[in-house]
Design goal:
Length: 75
């Protein structure tokens, strides 16, 4: 079954519902996601598209990686 990532939800909510996303997002360049407190603070207001813009990561790169890991997305 394909897992769906809702790109309008916060990183905190997505990672709480799907803890394996933490590792995937870290590998994509969200390296601070594993620092203590970051997921609970910035993650509560940040969405993947907003974080991607801040980090200079193309959203298509994230979507392709999610697809390779068995995810699909909705916006």
């Amino acid at each position: 079954m394909t897992k769906i990532v809702d790109l309008t939800k916060t990183v905190y909510k997505l990672c709480t519902d799907n803890p394996e996303l933490i590792h995937i997002l870290k590998q994509l360049g969200f390296e601070h996601i594993t620092k203590p407190g970051m997921l609970q603070t910035a993650g509560r207001v940040m969405t993947i598209p907003n974080g991607a813009r801040m980090k200079g990561i193309h959203l298509d790169t994230i979507k392709n990686t999610l697809k390779q890991c068995g995810y699909t997305w909705k916006a």
